[in-house]
Specification:
The complex is a heterodimer of chains A (about 50) and B (about 130).
Chain A: H1 2-17, E1 33-34, E2 41-47
Chain B: E1 8-14, H1 23-35, H2 39-49, H3 55-64, H4 69-77, H5 82-94, E2 102-105, E3 108-111, H6 116-131
Antiparallel strand pairs in B: 2-3
Helix pairs in contact in B: 1-2, 1-4, 3-4
The chains are: A alpha+beta (about 50), B mainly alpha (about 130).
Chain lengths: ~50, ~130
């Protein structure tokens, strides 16, 4: 019984550490942008000026 | 942003809160400046001068950054770029966004006015992941 619990605990820990980061797909649609299209990181900001 | 030069790209989407008086006209002002090739100049000015964003203020800002004031005014008054704003709002709603600012850093969502250091941390993680 203890062994089973240990295996369960390990699989939960391993599972969490490899959990995928959620990534949303957001179309760029030609919105105003700064920086090259080839950039390895794209930051999309939803803004309200007021 | 400037720190990472050629490796980072910033894209702006408009999500004016519908119950704020000048939210939408400000987005329109940014796009009117975009049409004249001065989006970022206007963008920075709007952030700096907010919440003083009524029509008269916006026209003053347009002159300040050297825009053609007549064209700018016409763009505001005819709501020329409303279609773009509407498209962005629809996109925001489809993503269940109810806060500004909201960021997507290579698709990773960050909601609200988080500390700069937190955004930087995620950007660095993404830059490092890209190197591998």
């Amino acid at each position: 019984m203890k062994k089973i619990l240990l295996v369960m605990l390990i699989s939960i820990l391993v599972g969490t550490s490899f959990a995928e980061i959620t990534r949303y797909s957001v179309p760029l649609d030609g919105s105003p942008s700064l920086g090259p299209n080839s950039a390895s990181v794209t930051i999309i900001e939803f803004i309200d000026y007021q | 942003m400037k720190e990472y030069g050629q490796k980072v790209r910033l894209v702006i989407k408009f999500y004016p809160y519908k119950y704020r008086d000048f939210a939408r006209i400000s987005a329109g002002a940014a796009l009117a400046a975009y049409d004249q090739g001065k989006f970022w100049e206007m963008h920075r000015l709007l952030l700096k001068r907010s919440p003083k964003l009524d029509r008269t203020n916006l026209i003053t800002y347009a002159k300040e950054i050297g825009l053609d004031a007549d064209k700018f005014r016409e763009s505001l008054d005819t709501r020329k770029n409303d279609g773009i704003i509407e498209r962005d709002v629809k996109l925001a709603l489809s993503l269940d966004l109810y806060n500004t600012p909201t960021f997507f850093i290579n698709g990773r969502r960050v909601i609200g006015d988080v500390p700069y250091e937190y955004l930087k941390k995620i950007v660095l993680e993404e830059l490092n992941a890209a190197k591998k």
